[in-house]
TrEMBL record:
This is tRNA(Ile)-lysidine synthase. It catalyses: cytidine(34) in tRNA(Ile2) + L-lysine + ATP = lysidine(34) in tRNA(Ile2) + AMP + diphosphate + H(+). Ligates lysine onto the cytidine present at position 34 of the AUA codon-specific tRNA(Ile) that contains the anticodon CAU, in an ATP-dependent manner. Cytidine is converted to lysidine, thus changing the amino acid specificity of the tRNA from methionine to isoleucine. Residues 383-455 form the Lysidine-tRNA(Ile) synthetase C-terminal domain. It comes from Alkaliphilus flagellatus. PANTHER family: TRNA(ILE)-LYSIDINE SYNTHASE-RELATED. It comes from the Bacteria. Coiled coil: none annotated. Keywords: ATP-binding, Cytoplasm, Ligase, Nucleotide-binding, tRNA processing. Its EC number is 6.3.4.19.
Amino acid sequence: MLDKMRKIIEDNNLIEQGDRIIVAISGGPDSVCLLHALYQIREEYNLELYGAHLNHNFRGIEAQIDAQYVSNLCDDLNILCFIKSMDVPQYAKENGLSPEEAGRILRYDFFEEVAERVGATKIAVAHNENDQAETVLMRLLRGTGLQGLTAIHINRGKIIRPLLNIDRNSIEEYCEIHKLSPRIDKTNLESIYKRNKIRLELIPYLEENYNPNIKDNLVKTAEILKDDFDFIEEKAREVYKELVNLQRDDSLILPLQSIKELHPALQSRVIRLSAEQLLGRQEVLEYKHVQNVLELIERGATGKKIVLPLGLVAKISYENLCFSTGEEDNKLFHYELPLEDTFYMEELKGSFTVRVVDRGEVKEISRDKYHKCFDYDQVKSILNVRNRREGDRFYPLGLTGSKKLKDFFIDYKIDRNERDRIPLVCDGDEIMWIVGLRISEKYKITDKTTRILEIIFRND
């Protein structure tokens, strides 16, 4: 088995000289075998190994015994071990996730946390060939796409799976030879979960009645489909980069019509990539979630939104599909703008530069939407910047009368949740400039203007 693992590592470039590796250890045969086997080859690769065990709090005292076993095993091998307990059932309930999905998310978050703490370059997990076959079959029965059928990948980012092409019998035999006495989760021997039923009932039935090599064939199928998936995924990432036209840490915007024109295979991937970009993790959205977003796109009604896993929100805003995370921040702001100075605003992550000059110093009036000039002789009060207030009106440049600010935003197709973020430069209560959109007719430069107020807004 050790030779098989070495070959897997070499064929897939899973480990490099001097790697620091976090080994995920549940205490079961697979992870115990993985830790011990990596320990055997540590000098060949000059490895630094660390153990990581998460107690999911599903199994009471049994889970605590598992944690103690892992601690003792790492002590015997002189390996530093990190153990953490988390309320996975509560997390699943709060985020609308299945217990299995919640456990997976929190496990990998914990592994990343430990990796960052010790400066690890890899995170080794103990999925094996049987896991791969079971996963392909389970996803096929549940209904899935090409990505789902590629099942478990041998490496992805920091994650490596050195045992993925090794069968469970070889792993258990390794544990017996080395007298490792791993912990056995008794629930794995009962047909109470779908995966257990596939492992204990369906695969043996298929082996006996249809194909004795069913596990090997399922694994080969996943490998073949992964090549096709990788090609389409590369194309999808190229398309995604072209489509994203506004991106912040907590939101991104995609043009609705451009998404509608994509091939369905690319549509679903662009949606998944959007979730991955904002949440920082892959495989957040299931098939049903992607379909919900596609239905939202098809309806195309402004203001309609759906809530996805982990607080991700998809929303239609006029011609755009918007993804965002976290709460909307609609805090009020109001600041005086100093003359002949630059004023930074944390709320906008940007700054205003204000100066007054004689008309003769300005050779050309800027047409930049964030660089505007005004007739300073018309300014009657204190210059300030604020966001909108109830009842605001505005005299748009080129019009003879005033317009409700709300109607102006509607005409410009500014989403309701974005309106509070747009700064208004004002003369007292009078709106001079809706930053980035339009200045007021009352403050435009004319032949009678003697002094010019120049205001520039810059984002970080």
